[in-house]
Design brief:
29% of the residues lie in helices and 30% in strands. Strands 1, 2, 3, 4, 5, 6, 7 and 8 form an eight-stranded antiparallel β-sheet that branches. It has five helices and eight strands. With 206 residues, it is of the alpha+beta class. Mean pLDDT is 79; it is low at 2-49. The protein folds into two domains: 1-48; 51-204, Protein Transport Mog1p, Chain A. α1 (6-19) runs antiparallel to α2. It starts with 5 loop residues before the first helix and ends with a helix. 19% of the residues are buried.
Length: 206
């Protein structure tokens, strides 16, 4: 089903503002305008399509021992649950996205979720592994420390956490709209170590 352009909605909202004399009607029009703007992709100025509609040629399949789940958001291409290691309470998830933004900006945003030891060098130089293939480049961040917040900014403040996160960019223009794949795994250090090899096996399978 094709949704109306958000810009068309903004035009309607502007008309409502002019036509409505009372404050309640104006507020309703402003609310509609904010809702229309929230559905505009900030980077491209277009309606964001569900992740499944943006799938290109990469398929992400569960590795042995993983539990495939229904993605909890239409922004996710795939989602997997990884059983906790003995002694850990949390069973982390791997989430796969297709989004925009530069490689460096996203890696730095992920590093910013952690409190790292003082006196270290640039974490993007010390903690990023780059794998290059004929048609793609993978940038994998591997960082351990105190997790300050999740990806939505919700405070966590829990030590002994580790993150494996990868940005996959096309080197042949094969991904639409200059988009990139994002693979992200965060959880207790012991559990992440248990599944690290299969995480890299997933990347190798692409």
């Amino acid at each position: 089903m094709k949704h109306p352009s958000p810009y068309a909605l903004l035009l309607v909202c502007g008309t409502l503002l002019c036509a409505c004399g009372d404050s309640k009607a104006k507020q309703e029009a402003l609310d509609a305008e904010r809702e229309a703007l929230s559905n505009v992709d900030a980077r491209s100025g277009t309606d964001p399509a569900p992740a499944a509609d943006r799938r290109t040629k990469l398929e992400f399949k569960a590795q042995p021992g993983w539990q495939e789940e229904t993605p909890s958001s239409n922004m996710r291409l795939a989602q997997f649950r990884l059983p906790a290691a003995e002694g850990d309470a949390d069973s982390p998830e791997i989430a796969v996205f297709f989004m925009g933004g530069s490689v460096q900006d996203n890696l730095r945003r992920w590093v910013g979720q952690f409190e790292l030891p003082e006196g270290g060098g640039d974490p993007l130089e010390e903690n990023v592994r780059i794998q290059t293939r004929a048609n793609m480049r993978m940038h994998t961040l591997d960082v351990t420390g105190k997790l300050l917040a999740d990806s939505m900014g919700t405070p966590i403040n829990e030590g002994g956490q580790r993150m494996l996160s990868t940005v996959i960019e096309a080197t042949d223009g094969g991904f639409p709209n200059d988009g990139k794949y994002f693979v992200k795994l965060t959880g207790p250090e012991k559990t992440i170590e248990k599944w690290a090899a299969s995480y890299y096996a997933l990347l190798e399978s692409l």
